[in-house]
Amino acid sequence: MDKANTCYLSSDNLCFTLAGMNKHPEQLKDRILSRRNELQLSQAQLADKAGVSQVTIQHLESGRNATSKRLVEIGEALGVSAEWLKNGSDGASRVAARGIESNVVPGPPITSPLRRIAIVGTAQMGPDGHWVALDDAGGWIEAWTRDEAAYALELRGDSMAPAIRNGWVAICEPGHRLVPGEYVMVTTTDGDSMVKELLFENPTVVSLMSLNSGYDRVTLQWKDIDTIHYVAAIMGPSKIQGRI
Q1: What pTM, to 2 d.p., does this model score?
Q2: Residues 179, 197: Cα–Cα separation, whole Å
Q3: pLDDT score of 220 more than 60
Q4: Residues 185/174/123/210 CA torsion (nearest 10 deg)
Q5: Residue 191, Cα to own-chain centre: how many angstroms?
Q6: pLDDT digit string, tens, across residues 143-193
């Protein structure tokens, strides 16, 4: 049997041959990129599978970082060993190619589909950082998100500059957990809405920092908050589609 051209199934049910593995790219960055493309994974999907940030994958593939402490996890996500990623040696290729049975039970596929996220409104930002009006917008943004309820708001005004500029779009994910140090969209029971940096939350209050240093820190009690949604991304106006 020609083992070099035998089709093996990886843990994600993709076919590969040993022939392709024997042609080792010269550097770590080339081997990661080549294997990721072979599996048809985006950088974000590989990062999710390996449990690392997308920046880690970007820096490795660009050659900015020559190695990583997480090569074992990245190798497992790619179906190869860390040794093969580092050296490209013939004796350290895929687990399946070496005939070693893995004791890892495959979980559900990790997917972060590129979604069309509707821009549900235009928020005109007032001088105190609150929205003073919410007008119809139209159009959409395409972005990677797992949250099927994700929505986008076009932000007008300069009260959040330079963090968020006039005409930029905030993508909100109602289903995402709140992350201290990152942005949230908050609507109070009085109807005031704002985009702030989440400092911390506890069972009683939520502490928020204004994006513009000219405004003070805000502390709200949970009973005064109608909704608080994680802001997944801020995107420029050039990303808006579907408008004439």
Answers
A1: 0.52
A2: 9
A3: yes
A4: 10
A5: 30
A6: 888 888 999 988 887 767 677 788 889 999 999 999 999 999 888 898 778
> What does DSSP assign to residue 60?
H
DSSP 91: T
Q: Delineate the domains of the chain, giving CATH numbers in brackets.
A: 3-87 (1.10.260.40), 116-238 (2.10.109.10)
User: In this predicted structure, what is the pLDDT of residue 176?
Assistant: 93
- Main-chain phi, psi angles of 105, to 5 degrees: -85, 120
d(CA 36, CA 10): 13
Distances (CA, A) of 221 to 8, 167, 193, 202, 218: 57, 30, 15, 10, 10
- Tokens representing 84 are 């093969």
**Sign of CA pseudo-dihedral 35, 39, 43, 46:** negative
Q: Is 1 helix (H, G, I), strand (E, B) or coil?
A: coil
pLDDT digits over 38-84, tens only? Answer: 888 999 999 999 999 999 998 888 888 888 888 889 989 998 888 88
- Residue 43 token pair: 């950088």
Which tokens in the block code for residue 146? 């797992």
